[in-house]
Protein 1
Amino acid sequence: MNNVRKAGLVIKPHAPSVESILKDLVGYFEGRGIACVLEDVAARKLGRPGGLQRADVAAASDLVVVLGGDGTLLSVAHHAAQAGVPVMGVNLGRLGFLTEIPVREATLTLDRFLAGDASLISPRWLLEAKTRGAASFCLNDVVVTKGAVARMIELAIGIDGKEVATLKADGLIISTPTGSTAYSLSAGGPILHPLVPAIVLTPICPHTLSFRPLAVPSTSTVGVRLLTGGEEVHLTLDGQRGGALVRDDTVEIRKAPFELHLVTSPRRNYYDLVKEKLGWAE
């Protein structure tokens, strides 16, 4: 049996029916003697004091339940992974590759997880991106891309200290297998099963059409140096965090030293999920 004494609850505040679903889950946990750790916006919805900032919920919990879409889960995934706390996503959004559990299956999944069903845990490794001496972590992808009105940018790509290519493109996506069904897929990258030990490099609108997506071992260190000056260029992690890059800035990307324990559905496997979300059965 999993020893869960405190359950964190993170929400997408404007999702349909989120308040009633939140109340139901709080009742579920408290009825089992499990204290609820609410992020501040969730606490306000229930009229309770003492809500935490989203970034602090995982460290104060033994399990985090996300009510929302993949973006909501991505906002807490790196905090939960560093704290060693599993995350379960209940889908109140649209696509939901990460928040894969429908509302109607939430308590069934929690029953199985709390009873100690280890088969529900899908280990997902993260990327560490280091630039200017500062390290950040992400579950899906690291993206280097031009600004809205900028011209094509030029990037030098190295693998384990060896120069591999110079890319002229709108940008470059470096993704985990988990992130392979996100931005990378939209840019023509391959779908990788979460257990495949590879990092995917996917160019965005490359000038040279022969520059295709590349998968390298997950033990690799990928270096991306910006060769272009005088243009607006962004570094983005999981589509949510990041900053500006200037000429000769280098981003070093490698597998993070920890992983996320994602609680998955007891009623479908990864291939069922891909088939459902991408409409392969239609």
Note: The chain has a mean pLDDT of 95.
Protein 2
Amino acid sequence: QRVIAGAITPSGWSNACLCGQHSQDGAGSEHGFKAIGGWKFGNTIDGCQAEYVLVPDAMVNLAPVPEGLSDEQVLMCPDIMSTGFSGAENGKVRIGDTVAVFAQGPIGLCATAGARLSGASLIIGVDMLPGRLEMARKLGADQVVDASQGDVVEQIMQLTGGRGVDVAIEALGTQKTFEAALRVLRPGGTLSSLGVYSSDLTIPLDAFAAGLGDHRIVTALCPGGKERMRRLMSVIASGRVDLGAMVTHRYKLDDIEAAYDLFSHQRDGVLKVAITP
């Protein structure tokens, strides 16, 4: 039987899981919560780039792949798609919203697709690479902003008539993109952060309206669990989104070092690499 498991594998029974915070799973801890505790593969246990894998709490995390969907069609569900979609979900994108998505790498592209599925009427994709901006248009961006061509904040404010966006999704994890996302928010808007930050963040006083602007900042770690996987595969099966074009290269497991070299150096327009046995 073909199955997938999310990159995040919650226990299903911890306090965190029982109140809906599956990624912050604290199974076995005194109070049942642990920041990023659901992230086990490649973090607290070995990853999945192997011939055989033992999935923690398999009854909670293994989801059968429906007939009619190929391995490659569901490849993004466990991590990239789940994370990107959560940017729109946590931002509570509503019908008619204006959304800016900062960085159109694989996660940002999925955030763009998620914003479209959530009903946003104007989606602005931001990146510096022409190929990624083109892909953003295919996945739902109405407008794209080349970050190498002028001030991003000014361009987005012009596109919104000075109003700003309802939701800004940050999908890179840098001070520059975080601050830009904050600056383009309308009063009462939401900054939905997907980036993994490697240094302290600073919140500019003016962009934050001295804490009086009713802004919301929310963060996320890829949602996991079998019901999440079922829902994502259902979206793929419906044909409402096609992420196949994001798989730009394919390698065998024996050649995985070459795949990592390609990806780490971002050669040949790589977005995501599919590894097969």
Note: DSSP finds nine helices and ten strands in the chain.
Protein 3
Amino acid sequence: MRATHSKKVGTGSNKRPEKLNVHIRNSWRTNLQLIRSIGNMIGYKKSLSEWQCLSEVKMGRGSPIPPMLRRKIVEQYQKGVSQRKIAKSLKLSSSTVHNIIQRFRESGTISVRKGQGRKTILDARDLRALRRHCITYRNATVMEITTWAQEYFQKTLSVNTIHRAIRRCRLKLYRSKKKPYLNMIQKRRCFLWAKAHLKWTVAKWKTVLWSDESKFEVLFGKLGRHVIRTKEDKDNPSCYQRSVQKPASLMVWGCMSACGMGSLHIWKGTINAERYIQVLEQHMLPSRCCLFQGRPCIFQHDNARPHTASITTSWLRRRIRVLKWPA
């Protein structure tokens, strides 16, 4: 019994080095394929001797033979060397050498035949139809495009497939820019205004006093739109978005010209024609005297309701020339 037990132990100890050698060979093949792929990425080309040394390790199924080694096989074949000797000298299989020589006989080239692979779900015609749909409906979501594509092409398509197809169409999803909307009447007014002032010189534009007002939210605004938290902190009060229905705000008016900056005025609440005239008297007229020093100038403001009121236009008509604004 003891002898039998010792024999089994000895047999197991003999198999262990064999398993270790197999593991080492597999890891060496994996590392060799990794080194070869990295070399192809950086453009490194091995010499024939290096490939001969590396060919001692059996390449994986489907691994292409380097063009330099293919060229060497064809050269030896044209010199009259047999296929068996070529395979033995280059340490390749006879079937590999036979396939390369047969392809050279048939086509006269040594290039690798392109593999078939899996065909794409959407062909070129489908991609053109998808591109036309995406350009027509630019604001559609990927889910809406996927639903349309499944009904139109009568194929089972996923959202990821449509994502890849959109990229193949040389399109990409972007966040749209924000721009004020202009109707056709406003666009025509802007065009006529630009055409009327096309011949203005730089000196003429330097005589313009530009003005505008803007509204600023004081307390909350748009703070808290994004927060850094864990999944469990969604109900933490510090992770909430602060928002109110009517946040406190301030109205700021200012003016400037090519000569420098004018005064800045801040007030609370809304503005009407009477309050706007007070702002012009207290801030616009002193800024004009400070910037232009008695020289003639042109005042510019937009077409807001307090600006186009009858009392405002009559007050401005007696004191300063106003630049007509298209919108």
Note: The radius of gyration is 40 Å.
Protein 4
Amino acid sequence: MKTSDAATEITRASKSNLAFAFIAMSGARRRDITTFYAFCRVIDDIADDDGRDQETKRRELAIWRQSLRGEFTNEPALAKPVRQLLSTYPITPEMLEEIITGVEMDVDIRRYAAWDELRVYCHRVASAVGLVSIEIFGYKNPQCRDYAIALGLALQMTNIIRDVAADLKADRIYLPQEDLARFNYREDDLRNGVTDSRFIQLMNLEAARAESLFAEATNLLPPEDRRSMLPAEMMRSIYQALLRRMKLDNFRIFEKDYRLSKIEKAGRAAAQLFKFF
């Protein structure tokens, strides 16, 4: 299988909202964003794989760091096309290493004391992805970088809210400890699936944080770059709808796996696309 085919298959198999947004792209840019997404998926899967011990995870992520700097024997299959991105776009090895650093945080860190700490994590695993993505999308106004940062934070906070139950099974609690304490909601309550008023208040706080970041991203998007940022705007629309659904449903995350159907995603993608006709 060619590496381009492998990247496409990794992206398709992920069933990600990000992969869905690629329908707005074509040609070389679509191929290249698919390669980049496959890179993100592969390194994230290393950190999330229960079959690998911590040392193995660190070693494999270190190999990826090395591969960004130059070719070597037995490097990952996707390494060469990922390096080609660096020569095609204004993307540096450091930009991709920032994402690897974020993934490494999942290997070693299970709790976050405060939003300031969690924000660093969210920046590395989401905003850094956005900053690379917009280079592939293409843009005119440098303010797009601020847009990408805010949107990445909003998307990751939405993921965190949605995945509280799933992350807990892996002994990961991304909700800041100071937020739990604010509502006198304990880890034991979370483990027991307690969804009383304290829990609803806690989740509404996290949702408000995400909503504020979505609003910030919307305000930062330069008018002249709205067309090139169409894939990102599709993501924004899909994730905001997901966040709204969870909020209206009082965050029944221990009972439901919140997703938008393909039809709902297609409708939101089409709505963004039709803005340009």
Note: The chain has two domains: 1-108, 110-277.
